[in-house]
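haha ok so turns out i had the wrong file open the whole time. this is the CORRECT one, sorry everyone. sequence first:
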Amino acid sequence: MTATTTGPAARQARRAAFALPGPYRAVLRQHRTALWVLFGLFVLGTAALAAARLWVGHAADVFTATDCVIRKTTPDCGGSVRGYLDAELQFGRNLDYAGMAMLGLPCLIGAFVAGPIVARDLESGTYKWAWTQSVTPARWLAARLAVVAALVVSGVVLFTAVQRWAWSTGPELEYVRALWYERAMYGSLGTVGIGYALLGLAVGALTGLLVRRVLPAMAAATAVTLGVVVLLPLARPHLWATETTTWARTYSGATTPDFGFLLEHGMLTADGKRLPESLCWGPDPEACLTEHQVTGWYSDFHPSSHFWPLQLVETGILLVLAAVVTYAAFRLLRHRVA
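then structure:
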């Protein structure tokens, strides 16, 4: 019995039980170089971001131990102050670079799927061999999308988690840290990165099936995905109801509390009418305010507590779009082979 359960045949059976189905293994073998490069980019980016966070934390600890201060520093503290401020500045830049990388990632994924993953087989004709090996066209496409999706989702989740950790737990900075609603930062702190990545994958698949040539398909997928990345965030402020804060005419404090995402700011009249702030930009603003019976100010904004509602609504929209585009890709494939 022992020989049966631990012998070569048993070990081979256990390996077979955990092995990927044939089409998925074929995708991994055929595109292993490109997939390893994509995986390596995720790992290197995540490691660099984590290192930057640890480095600025260490710089803050070292600076604190010197008993120097940023403001009204003494001459012998000049080097320590400059060194720490340089570390802070570089850390802020690294966060911005990471956010911009997340903005460009959907375009990269779309081009990668459209060209090397889908259009290359269609252009070269190798798909015909795959379809004669008991692999249906739908399974051929599903295997390609599933392998890339598993890699991309895992990488985006890891990268986003490290970016959020670095952004939220870093030391208090003298330089203003990027705010949660800024476009690059917003896309790398929550779930929308996953949604954009999957939409880029779906667009790449559909474009590759439509164009069927590697370079034109890559260019078209990049253009379409870039359009979505640029245009869809324009609707972001309207995905959740805003809040409004008002204050008296004589108050000159902040226009939004809690680092809110300001959407509209202006003047309020005695009867509650809203007027644009620019109306009284002139040589005598007080006279203008009195003339229009301005009694206070208002601001429409999203507080930081709206971060997750906005993220989840936008992610839901992206996932629906990705599902629709993926369905269109399978329908097109079915039509082509019918």
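Residues 21-234+307-337 form one domain.
again sry for the mixup
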